[in-house]
């Protein structure tokens, strides 16, 4: 089953799949924040560091399979499998978008 994702979100998952941090960064606004694994990353430098570290730490694939709107955010559920504890798992990605850019991303179980 394929789903239609907003352009910024589709680009995010494509860049993440290709492990292309530069393209991942183009998906975010300059004042974006990311919430992942109990930490908050704010701005380009911290988000770049988060993406580089997570890409080095784990090999994984993320396959989005569900999209819904919830409280002003686009929620994408993705099947994530790789070499991390608890794999595979379905993660929820909560995106807040503005002007075709990600201004907030929260990743949860």
Task: Characterise this structure.
The chain has 109 residues and is an alpha+beta fold. The chain is built from three helices and six strands. The protein has helices at 7-17, 21-26, 43-57; strands at 28-36, 39-42, 60-70, 73-82, 89-98, 101-108. It has a six-stranded mixed β-sheet. The longest helix has 15 residues, at 43-57. It is globular. The model has no long low-confidence stretch (mean pLDDT 96).
Overall spatial form: globular
Please mark out the parts with pLDDT under 50 across 5 or more consecutive residues, or reply none.
Answer: none
**What is the mean pLDDT?**
96
Number of contiguous helices: 3
Number of strands: 6
Run of helices and strands: HHEEHEEEE
Assembly state: single chain
Secondary structure layout:
Elements: H1 7-17, H2 21-26, E1 28-36, E2 39-42, H3 43-57, E3 60-70, E4 73-82, E5 89-98, E6 101-108
Parallel strand pairs: 1-6
Antiparallel strand pairs: 1-2, 3-4, 4-5, 5-6
Quickly describe the structure:
The protein is α+β, with helices and mostly antiparallel strands and 109 residues long. It has 3 helices and 6 strands, in the order ααββαββββ.
């Amino acid at each position: 089953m394929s789903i239609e994702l907003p352009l910024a979100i589709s680009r995010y998952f494509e860049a993440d799949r290709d492990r292309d941090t530069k393209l991942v960064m183009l998906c975010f606004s300059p004042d974006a924040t990311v919430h992942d694994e109990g930490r908050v990353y704010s701005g380009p430098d911290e988000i770049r560091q988060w993406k580089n570290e997570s890409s080095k730490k784990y090999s994984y694939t993320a396959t989005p399979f569900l999209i819904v709107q919830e409280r002003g955010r686009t929620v994408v559920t993705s099947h994530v499998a790789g070499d991390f504890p608890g794999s595979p798992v379905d993660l929820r990605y909560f995106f807040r978008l503005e002007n075709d850019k990600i201004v907030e991303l929260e990743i949860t179980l």
